[in-house]
Amino acid sequence: MAATALLGFGRQAVRCEQRLATRASNSHDPGVRTLKTSEAAALLNVSANTLRAWERRFGYPKPQRSAGRHRLYTHGEVAALRDALQEGLSISSAVSRAREALSTDTHTLVGALAGYELDRADGAMECALALRSVERSVEEVLLPSLDELGRRYGTDSAPWSFAARWADGWLRRAQRLAPPPSRPLAILVGDATRNELDPDALRVRAFELFCGRAGARVMALPVASVSGLGELVAALSPDALVIAGSHVCDDAVALWAYRVRAASGQLPTALFRRSHAADAAGARVLPDRPFGAQRQLLALVDDRRAHIAAEAPPLRAAATPVRREASS
Amino acid sequence: MRRLHALETLEDDFRGRPLVSFCGHCGSPPPPAQLAAERPSRVCGHCGLGLVLSAAPAVAPAIGEPFLVVDSTLSVCAVSAQAEELLQIDETRAVNRHIADFLVPADANAPGADNLLVLLVDAAAGSGEPRTTVVRPREEFGVRFHARIGSCGPPHAALLVLTS
User: Which residues pair with A17 in a beta bridge?
Assistant: First the structure.
């Protein structure tokens, strides 16, 4: 049992993989039980307007959006709030209590990783996935737990190394189980982190995962690899370039980016978790949180495409005079 | 007189004294339709931002009176809209913080029994008659409020109504 747990193939890990495998779409997660606004309002015994007012004032419960942009509330969040309201003195205190109830997954994960218990760590993530989307499980449970371990033991400690390797494995597993690319969008990530023990590396993995789950084709490459870049760029034909991490020096990164641009032409470039972002010539600095970075990058690519489409001469206008000439 | 219009007697406390209901945010009494519902909601039917609480008529706030709700650990649990405006605090940031972060006794020479925190702990335990004291916002001088303190709930908590 211990051996299987250490190999990462414990029962919890298998269950977690099954749950991840059911998470296909990016906008709303079919593996999480969700409620429409009317259903959530009925569960809380309030009106739909009240629920929207709470979202504005307290930021809770925070709905996802369906493909048709309708609100979808996570059942776990709504149920936690309902329980807290029964014993609360105000909506604010009930929201605070509901948030605390949901953060128990973080405490469990920190405890499991600090105790070198892989099976329990996988179990904590499985519990997190039962209540949240993959994106929120990573941003609200996995990454904060790793941050806590880093603060507690330092990033050169054995607990950190163990936890970082486990988290890296978890994120890579989730990436493998992500749905195949569904939109014509390719992103090349220049990985400028030290290795998987670099605190930025997990956020870069999470960013790659989120981009992949949004339907993009993502390829990450260490910025040290410069030979053969032309072939890779030709094969991927990236729509955007992201330099992620701050371990590698600016000169090496600049050389790598130059080689990519030489092969691909002008590309929108963005920086993620790069501390020397102030001197980024023309590059967009993405937010520090992986999900925010993913959204901003996709918006950047969409904007650029819309700009190019607007600048291109309309085909019909060009064709009309030709037809007139022919008729005259 | 205004209070008598605003508040409606609903039920009795465990000592058989009548209680009135009000919203923990806007201070309004719940609409009659809400009380008559088969499964009455605890959320205020007027503003939707507070829970319906009950208190003795002598303590309950009149419409427009600023008030705070404090639990037995002296943590702030609710801040009315008027108190938010008066004390320039945001309820969402004030909850779970100690009441002394916002209000302190204005009369430093008050005897022990009239100490603000003692009164609040007694009220949060559900014991004693409504009491009054004088308070001021923390780190502000020259501003004083009369405070009416009594029990409210459920669950048991102290209600601190600020009067001019």
Answer: none
